[in-house]
Design brief:
Protein name: UPF0313 domain-containing protein
Structural class: alpha/beta
Order of helices and strands: HEHEHEHHEHEEH
Number of helices: 7
GO molecular function, one term: 4 iron, 4 sulfur cluster binding
Number of strands: 6
CATH architecture: 3-Layer(aba) Sandwich
InterPro entries: UPF0313, UPF0313_N
Keywords: 4Fe-4S, Iron, Iron-sulfur, Metal-binding, S-adenosyl-L-methionine
């Protein structure tokens, strides 16, 4: 979604902004499409930011401040599995990105996207969802760093 699309719909702001590490595909196999459509059916104005540039807060500000919350997910797959092989080597493709281009999402995308949402709008709650958030909701062994990591809820502090 863009500001131009919001203007065409007559929206001055979104109630909810969903952030995903996948390219946006309006199909039931993509969780953000389902969430967005269900929220719209309930009367909410929903914006979706897909594969934002995580190096700055600019992409997270492009739709303005959401009235209710940000919804964040790494995408259909855990971002670490999406980026690395079992041998801890970078993958050369990404099935959930247009053109199979690798490198469009960061390591631990749920954590990074939440940090950028908070950097952009400190007082807006963030709700986490998706496979990455659910797998890391408690302390867990992290294969990639060979350590026990804290819960993503502790590290990201999603709710204000």
């Amino acid at each position: 979604m863009s500001r131009e699309e919001m203007d065409q719909l007559g929206w001055d702001s979104c109630d909810i902004i969903l952030v995903t590490g996948d390219a946006y595909v309006d199909h039931p196999s993509f969780g953000m499409a389902i969430c967005g459509r269900m929220l719209e059916a309930q009367g909410f104005r929903v914006g979706i930011i897909s594969q934002p540039d995580w190096n700055s807060k600019d992409d997270f500000m492009r739709l303005g401040k959401p009235n209710l919350f940000f919804g964040v997910t790494a995408g259909n797959m855990d971002s670490m599995i999406n980026r690395y092989t079992a041998d801890r080597k970078l993958r050369h493709d990404d099935a959930y990105t247009a053109g199979n281009v690798a490198g469009k999402r960061p390591d631990r995308a749920t954590l990074v996207y939440t940090q950028r949402c908070k950097e952009a709008w400190k007082d807006v709650p963030v709700i986490l969802g998706g496979i990455e958030a659910s797998l890391r909701r408690t302390a867990h062994y992290d294969y990639w760093s060979d350590t026990v990591r804290r819960s993503v809820l502790v590290d990201s502090r999603p709710i204000c």
